[in-house]
Design a protein that fits this description.
Blueprint: E1 5-12, E2 21-27, E3 34-36, H1 38-43, E4 48-55, E5 61-74, E6 77-85, E7 90-92, H2 94-100, E8 102-105, E9 110-113
Length: about 130
């Protein structure tokens, strides 16, 4: 099993004059959020909303800018989120993956819509209880 990359489109939803960016994102289901390099934040003219403390893979923590809002699109799926400005490549974490109902397939090293809901993203909005 190797690294999984997928192409996504990032859009600044507050500035219609800016063209969306199509980027290659490293898929990391062990990470939670979208992370983007500073160069992407600058190109999309994303404003810092606040600073957030994050723990990175080596266990260290640091305060980083949190920018947004950003629209992430992949095929017929999209979501709206913020992003941590961190690292040198786009990293797609579990929260936007779940929001778009995408699954990573390690065997084929790709990202696809959830086969259980191929036409429209599905989600659980509240706890599900079973009748007895």
């Amino acid at each position: 099993m190797g690294l999984i990359f997928t192409e996504v489109t990032l859009t600044n939803v507050r500035d219609d004059a800016l063209q969306p960016l199509v980027v290659s994102a490293l898929v990391d289901t062990g990470a939670l959020h979208l992370c983007i390099p500073e160069s992407i934040a600058i190109q999309l003219n994303l404003k810092e909303l606040e600073r957030r403390q994050v723990t990175i893979a080596d266990g260290s923590t640091r305060a980083v800018p949190y920018v947004g809002p950003i629209k992430i699109s992949k095929g017929n799926r999209s979501c709206f989120t913020g992003a941590m400005v961190l690292g040198s490549q786009v990293l797609l974490g579990a929260i936007p993956m779940e929001d778009m109902d995408l699954v990573a397939r390690p065997a084929t090293q790709d990202v696809v819509p959830n086969p259980a809901s191929p036409n429209m993203p599905a989600s659980v909005a509240m706890g599900v209880s079973r009748s007895r």
